[in-house]
Amino acid sequence: MRLFACDNCDNLLHFENVKCESCAAPLGFLPDLGSLSALREEEGALRAAADPANRPWKRCANAAYDACNWLLPAGSDTEYCSACCHNRTVPDLTLAANLPLWRRMQFAKHRLVYSLDRMGLPHPCRAKGSDTGLAFDVLADPDDPAAPRVMTGHDEGLITLALAEADDAERERRRTEMGEPYRTLLGHFRHEVGHHYWNLLVRDAGRLEECRAVFGDERGDYGEALKAHYARGASDDWRGRFISAYAAAHPWEDWAESWAHYMHIQDSVEMAESLGLHIRPRLDATGDLSARIRLDPYAERDYGRVMAAWAPLTVAVNSLNRCMGTPDAYPFVMSEAVVAKLRYIHGLVQAEGNATTAAAA
Fold first, then answer.
1. CA dist., res. 158 & res. 131, Å (int)
2. Domains: count for the chain
């Protein structure tokens, strides 16, 4: 993710902005250009200052709910942008309590899709009645407190997310109850989509054996592995081999947890680059914690350079959070075994992204 600037006044913008807070210019995101652009209305359509072709655009239908700022071509036969087209089921938005929670879900999903586009990964929307493509069901818990709660999960590209996870208090309650150091909406999206890309980049691409050499053999009983994890927790030796205790439950969860962290790192390093950060603690006489972040993590082929930027960045953001009395932003340890898994994922993403770019050329 990166910062954007208003085409009219150069004021800094955030990804979710719908208007410039300085000059009040209306804004829209152009997914094919990766630009947040000032807009003007012309002949019944929107024109984007950042679009060199000056094409006509329209807003996504979810703009009516203040839940999307993405644009799509004015002549498109769909009303939903390339992020919102993934919505298969949404909660009842006539209920006042659901709308603000769903908006938060929307913002997290848009950041997910932005990163998938930056990674060059295909994410075709699932057509009505189809069982292929990426789709999301965002479901509210039933009114009956005795009824089963919605469970977040993945099934062949269909990702189910519990609307309750958008409630900060409820999510924190679940995080504490499950003994997790970190639990966010965006983290859920990234973890679950990781399962989807395991199917695409590993299983369907004939890479099972090479992936097993990195993450272990996924053919062990998945359901029993999760039951054992929730009953007894991870063994004491999970640290150093896995990014989290949950990753130790089964190779599929190791992959999904590693994938989510890979996306965290790519997104954060890109933002650090956008901010022009240069981090070198004054006590760092050797330079081991120094990073002048001048790279595009999505284009960088040498994953060691991404890791060299990430390590001092985590020290910086965790230290700032502690100054504010809040938990560490990144409470995880990057062992060599974990970095090897991230490096493997990076290689697959680079290969797929290059193939996608070549096919589109």
1. 8
2. 3
Average pLDDT, the chain: 92
Residues 213 and 334 grouped into a single domain: yes
- Which residues, at least 6 apart from 78, have a Cβ–Cβ distance to it below 8 Å? 72, 85
pLDDT of residue 353: 78
Tell me the two tokens of residue 271: 């933002």
* Closest by Cα among 134, 92, 104, 114 to 4: 114
**Residue 288's pLDDT band (cuts 50, 70, 90):** low
**219 and 352 housed in the same domain:** yes
Amino acid making up residue 69: N
Helix, strand, coil in percent for the chain, rounding step 5: 45, 15, 40
3-class SS at 3?
coil
Domain hosting residue 41, numbered range: 1-81
Task: Round to whole Å and give the CA distance between 272 and 260.
Answer: 18
pLDDT tens readout for residues 30-65: 999 999 999 999 988 899 999 999 999 999 999 999
Same domain, yes or no, for 29 and 2? yes
For 186-251, give the DSSP string: HHHHHHHHHHHHHIIIIITTT-HHHHHHHH--TTS-HHHHHHHHHHH---TT-BTTBSSTGGGG-H
pTM: 0.93
